[in-house]
Specification:
This protein is mainly β and 313 residues long. It is 6% helix and 40% strand. The protein has a domain of 191 residues. This is Lipoprotein.
Length: 313
């Protein structure tokens, strides 16, 4: 029978055996434990919601405050913080009743108000008041030129409490009662007296509704603005609103040279202004040419601004 003879098998030597052993061992080296284990991949962690920075102050609620053209229209206001607020008010009026008869008056008021962190509030106003009436000899019974001048200095203190206005974001309510000792403490730069329990006094509270106004073209610096309803605090205020008497001092709201009635309350609301970092100077003039109101800045008042300026014996 014919056919190709089978090829004899080639013997395998030591070199082949070593190569085969190495090829078998390499894949297993990764299986040898090294003391460290590789963590299996888990699910992606959920993103944490953004958190407010610890200790970051909450931005104050800003509200529009409409004060009329004398203050440039609408200003931004927000609730005031604790602190000391001061102002000097220079209020004046000079009018011709006739060409032969003139009347006038002026008030210079130094004011310091404090809002304490524990809810106590205090205010002291020292007023230098002057009045003047002049009549020519043509209308007097004596036939002589007559001038009548008068002046006095006095101060009034008030103490009470303050708290956020529950019905008006951006405002606080300040309830004050007559307390003359407050002026002594503020003059000496001392702390306010303890708040009096309203149930233990018959004195009626005077309420202020206050906001902190941002500066604008009429107001050169931030100011504490307090709306006054009536009562003992109104003489420290200027009237604002839609009336043509807006800007006049509350005590000079009537024009003695005309027969026009007093401004309507809804058109002429009394407001008190005090400076925040420094004193605010409030200058209201009601003279022959009409009413003007302007504000200037000055250094913060110290307690001695509440002192009687007359020479001491």
């Amino acid at each position: 029978m014919s056919g190709a003879a089978p090829t004899a098998a080639r013997p395998r030597g030591p070199r082949f055996a070593a190569s085969a052993l190495l090829a078998w061992a390499l894949p297993c080296l990764a299986c040898i434990p090294t003391g460290e284990t590789e963590a299996e991949p888990g699910p992606e962690p959920a993103a944490e919601p953004a958190r407010a920075k610890q200790g970051a102050p909450t931005p104050p609620t800003t509200v529009p405050v409409e004060l009329g053209a004398a203050l440039g229209g609408t200003l931004d206001g927000h609730a005031p913080a604790t602190g000391r607020y001061t102002a000097t008010q220079r209020l004046s009026q000079a009018k011709f009743i006739t060409y032969e008869h003139t009347v006038g008056g002026s008030r210079t008021i130094s004011m310091i108000a404090v809002l304490d962190a524990d809810g106590r509030a205090g205010l002291c106003a020292a007023t230098q008041e002057r009045s003047r009436t002049s009549k020519s000899r043509f209308i007097t019974e004596s036939g002589e030129h007559e001038v009548d001048e008068d002046g006095r200095w006095y101060r009034q203190g008030f103490a009470g409490t303050w708290a956020p206005d529950p019905d008006g974001p951006g405002f606080v309510l300040v309830d004050l009662r007559y307390a003359p000792e407050v002026c002594d403490r503020l003059e000496a730069d001392q702390a306010l007296p303890p708040a009096e329990d309203p149930s233990e006094t018959s004195a009626e509270a005077e309420r202020l509704r206050c906001t902190l106004l941002a500066a604008n073209t009429k107001l050169p610096a931030p100011a504490l603005a307090c709306q006054v309803r009536s009562g003992a605090l109104a003489p420290f205020a200027v009237g604002l609103g839609r009336s043509d008497r807006a800007g006049a001092a509350w005590v000079y709201r009537q024009d003695p040279s005309s027969r026009a009635p007093e401004p309507r309350p809804e058109d002429f609301e009394p407001w008190i202004f005090l400076g925040v970092d420094g004193a605010l100077e409030v200058i209201s003039e009601d003279h022959r040419d009409g009413v003007s109101l302007r504000f200037e800045t000055q250094r913060a008042l110290r307690g001695d601004a509440l002192r009687d300026p007359s020479p001491r014996e």
